[in-house]
Amino acid sequence: MSGDGIDKRALFLISYGLYVVSSRMGDKLNGQVANAVMQVTSDPMVLACCLHKENLTTQCIKDSRLFTISVLEEDTPMTFIGNFGFKSGRDIEKFSSCACEFTSREVPYSPDYSLAVIEAEVIDVKEVFTHVLFLGEVKYAKVLKEGKPMTYSYYHEIKKGKSPKHAPTFGLDTGKVR
């Protein structure tokens, strides 16, 4: 436990999934790995997605007001996660190394290693310190294949993955709950 009374290991007990959040800004396509995604309501269907305010994907979503969520499967290789999670779209074209498809509203996503894709239209945006919380109404959703969705716990424990610098959970990698 840290000196401020916060045992950061407790936060690892909150369940997360692992997703690729994608959007576009004009002709620029971008996506990133995210774990801070959740369904907020069912009627209408609304998702919440939280991304670091400095990330290119955040800028793309602010510009287009649209985003996709791809639900990653457990078999997703670390090279795919690394492409979307540890590289900047300012330096590389992330969709050049994988299949890229588009929703009817021209929002990009990769079907590679994705169990499902969900498209949402932004209905609200909240600044939360270092991050931006997007609330999006679901406009399209499709199951692409059957499989087990990757949890953030699986990513850390089985795949031995780390949290990138701009992840909401960065800094929590310091201890495991036993």
Automatic annotation (TrEMBL):
PANTHER family: FLAVOREDOXIN (PTHR43567:SF1), FLAVOREDOXIN-RELATED-RELATED (PTHR43567). Transmembrane segments: none annotated. Signal peptide: none annotated. Belongs to the flavoredoxin family. Residues 11-157 form the Flavin reductase like domain. It comes from the Bacteria. Its cofactor is FMN. The keyword Flavoprotein applies. The keyword Magnesium does not apply. This is Flavin reductase domain protein FMN-binding protein. GO terms for molecular function: FMN binding; oxidoreductase activity, acting on the CH-NH group of donors, NAD or NADP as acceptor.
